[in-house]
Amino acid sequence: MAKKKERFNKKELQKKKVQKRKEKEQRREERKANKEDTSFDDMIAYVDEFGNITSTPPEPRKKEEIKLEDIVISTPSQPEITLPKVRTGRVRFFDTSKGFGFILDKTTGEDIFVHSNNLLEEIQEDNIVNFEVEKSPKGLNALEVRLSKE
């Protein structure tokens, strides 16, 4: 047999809602009564010269004047790495039908894109070549690629 479902009529539901509302109002009144009087000065926090948060204000005698010209805002510069203008590398891959390939640079170990328009001589895979490098939006490109005489 099926269980009997408990049903509440509208009056009982209304009584529960009113009771919850009264309890909520009572809790709100209790919070207001127990609330401590805190002033604005009690809520202020100060930061000392070491970056720690404290409740005591800094002493004016310890205040140090800083000239505006002494403040420097910048990123630290990185030392420039000077690479030779003409590099040497090995042709890792080259597809003559598509007209492009990649050269493995000996000094940096990077793969550098090469297009057949930038070739001065015919190249094949595993050839040692000399080339110049140009930056492009997609990465490094090899220019003036010629077979190495080594």
Low-confidence regions: none
Shape: elongated
Strand order of the largest sheet: 3-4-5-7-6
Q: Please, what is the oligomeric state?
A: single chain
Residue-averaged pLDDT: 86
Order of helices and strands: HHEEEEEEE
> Architecture of one domain, CATH level 2?
Beta Barrel
Tally of helical segments: 2
Largest sheet: 5 strands, mixed, barrel
Radius of gyration: 39 Å
Name the CATH class of one domain: Mainly Beta
Structural class: alpha+beta
User: Could you give the distance between the termini?
Assistant: 97 Å
Question: What's the name of the CATH homologous superfamily of one domain?
Answer: Nucleic acid-binding proteins
Instruction: Please name the CATH topology of one domain.
Output: OB fold (Dihydrolipoamide Acetyltransferase, E2P)
What is the count of β-strands? 7
Helix content: 10-25%
Describe this structure in words.
The structure is a single chain. The chain is of the alpha+beta class and 150 residues long. It has a domain at 86-147: Beta Barrel (OB fold (Dihydrolipoamide Acetyltransferase, E2P)), CATH 2.40.50. It contains 2 helices and 7 strands. The chain has a 5-stranded mixed β-barrel with strand order 3-4-5-7-6. A two-stranded antiparallel ribbon has the order 1-2. It starts with 9 loop residues before the first helix and ends with a strand. The mean pLDDT is 86.
Helices, strands, pairings?
Layout: H1 10-34, H2 40-43, E1 46-47, E2 53-54, E3 86-95, E4 100-105, E5 111-115, E6 128-136, E7 139-147
Parallel strand pairs: 5-7
Antiparallel strand pairs: 1-2, 3-4, 3-6, 4-5, 6-7
